[in-house]
Structure formats: structure tokens, C-alpha cells
Write a structure and sequence with these properties.
Length: 289
Amino acid sequence: MLDDLDDIHPLFHGAPSSASFKKLRKRIVRQTREAIEQYGMIDRGARWLVCLSGGKDSYTLLAVLHELKWRGLLPVDLLACNLDQGQPNFPATVLPEFLEKMGVEHRIEYQDTYSVVKEKVPAGRTYCALCSRLRRGNLYRIAREEGCSAVVLGHHRDDILETFFMNLFHGGRLATMPPKLVNEEGDLFVYRPLAHVAEEDCEKFAKSMNYPIIPCDLCGSQDGLQRQQVKQILDQWEKNSPGRRQVMFRALTNIRPSHMLDPKLFDFAGLMRGTEQFEEIGNDIPKLR
């Protein structure tokens, strides 16, 4: 059983015994397992590089993946990895000590990409885009060195929604973070097993477990980001209409190319009368005639 203390991975030792936490934990485990199965992430016997930043999301990812593996539901090897990018005041001993204590196989890598970013990015601009590219390149290298077939990231449902609206508002395209993709070189998968999990649940879980959270603003480059603006919009929508985030996320899994405007995805020119087609009625709800 999920609540039996004798068979819980060390990452769950000291978990609250409250009914609310047990419900939260079961929900996160279930949603993660659903995403892994739905998007075909399991390759039996594979080795995954689980990226750990020290934030609430990556701690949740690490714990849940080990929970699934502990229970025989994830037949892959897991290697936790933290990339120390040389950010000012980064507490370099926190993650190694935590992972040792938890008995989690891991690799800590130091690469001073922060200095590179500071040199390349003009004053007043945010570091995030270049920092992310340099980080990803190093993680791919580490995955190859460690014999991993996949790089596993802690992006959750809200990250995916925010990226969708950033692309919509600023990029002029309908796109977001996919739960599964292949890198440009074609030799590694990138997985996001928390794709169905809400950020709020990650925060509640990590805080309840008292994991040593490392703040994500060490570089001082987080203020005024477009992502923060989108996040505020989504927060307001959720406040006005609770559950709105989940409805919007569900829409990303229910796309109808025939009711969009991209001729590369649907053959509008070849559409003929008399063929089975969706017709919009009422409040733009399609009905099959």
C-alpha cells in the first residue's frame, strides 16, 4: 500500500501522516504515472538523467520517480544530476549532502556558464535564454557520458501553459513544451513526466517534505520576465474562475486541426462537400453532422 511506512523510499521518510498530504502524494504519483504511460516514456532497462536544480519542482520529480521505481512501476535506472553553473551564492553543498543522505545515485557537475552569460548578454537583458541553452548542452553531454537515453526535466502543467501563452502572445505560434521529444542530434529523449501535475501541488509537496529548497533567483535576472507577466495573467484568470488552468491545459490535449487555420496541418483546399465534417454551432462548440 502507498501508506505503508516499511516500504517507502528514503525520499519519503518523515512524510506527514495527514490525510491531505496522503491525498496530495497519491495524486502526484498517479498523474506522473499517467503521463509516463500516455506519452510512451518507458523503455525497459533504460537509464534516465534526472535533472535536479534544487527547486520545488525537481525535488518533486526526483521523489515521485523513485517512488514509482521503488514500487516496480518504472523499470529504468535513475541518475540524479545537478549542474552547478557558477551562480553567485549558490549553496554548492546542499544537493550533494541531501542526495548522499537519501541514498540516491547522483552526479554533481560544475561548469561556470554564468560568467559566459554575463559576458555575452547586454546589460539590462535577462540571462535566462542563453543560460538555458548552455545548461541543456551540458546536460546532453553528461547524459551521453553516463550512458543515459533520456534527459528528464521537472517542468509541470503550469510551465507548459505559460510557455503556450508566451508563444501565442510573443511568438505568433501555437506551441509549448512537449512532454516527450528527441533532441536535435537525434540521440536523446527529453521527458517531462510532471506534465499533468499542477505547480501548486509541487510546492505543497516539497514544503511538506521539508526538502532544502534552493531559490531560482540567485543570478538576479528574474524581474520583469515575460513569463512572469503571463503567470500573473493566468493567476488572475484562476482567481476569477477556479479550475480555469486545468480546462486550458485539457485544450492542449484536444486539438482539432480542421478548426484552426494552418493549411500544413489540414487540407482546406482539398475539402469537398459531402464529406464528414465538423460544424460549429452554439458557443463555437463543434458538432459532428
